[in-house]
Amino acid sequence: MNNKKVINAVAGSGKTTLIIDRLDLKKKTLILTYTTENQNHLKKKIIQKFSSFPNNIFVFGYFEFLLNFIVKPLSPYPIKNICYEKPNPRNPSPFNKNKDLIYSNRIAKYILNHLPEFKNRMEKYFDEILIDEMQDLASDDFMWMMSLSKLNLPVMLVGDFYQSTFSSSIRGNHLKNLYKDFFSYREIVESFGYEFDTELLVKSRRCTITACDFVKKNLNILIESDKQVISRVELITKPQEIEQVLVNSEIKKLFYMNSHKYQLNAGNWGGTKGMTYENICVVLNETTYKHYKSKSLHELNPQTKSKFYVACTRSLNDVLFIREKDIPKKYKM
After folding, report:
1. Is the pTM of this model over 0.85?
2. Cα angle value 250/255/257 (rounded, 5°)
3. Which residues pair with 282 in a beta bridge?
């Protein structure tokens, strides 16, 4: 039986619940995730389950784990921290001049090439490895994650290919098209020995039937609703109705970027990943508006498409659209 699994989970399908339900007090479980927000969310859910935080469960940020659990104990150099600035491309070293800093976009490659004993160390201290939001890891970080298939431990990776709105780090053109095509991505993952599951978490507990149908039809992303709810999913064009949406503070307005420039209850598409709102208004920039009108949203740039998908799947109920050009100037700061 394959104990190396990748669960591709649609938005709102219960990724966190899947992880939390798996935890018990008998196994030493390592949970890795990329964002600080998700780390805090996981820790909160773990405390809710066990009443306090168990000493056999470990939640780390990705880079925090690589630095403190692998590099510092195993590297012969006095590395103190990670440098998130881009290194000089003419200098291939993963370190700064004093070798007390290691570059974020070279740390995974350094581990894979020079610290192979990290696998033994992980097997010594943990009984299973779980990685949440796996789509946030790119380039060499993705390769490090794939290398965990060689561990003599159960490994479960959970994420949503289509929610790859930003990447942990990039090294030149290495795997730059990783998140461009789902089927190619799946082939790569399976080539490392992972069992790839697309059925366990295909139903969204958050989105309505109408919202899921919109995503399927317009973005070519397979997502089903786990609830029997019909909602509004439509473009608002009449000035009076636009005004009603904008002044309603209970409707979250989601912009492609620069939401802070508007005096509204607003956020950016990609920045709302993991969030849930009662109702949302997705503000369409000109590029997305043109694709919306021509029914070609599936042709958006892959990263823009991912951010748009995130935005459209935040609502428990209505998903309204407004063209950014139709927002009155009085709302701009």
Report:
1. yes
2. 140
3. 254, 321
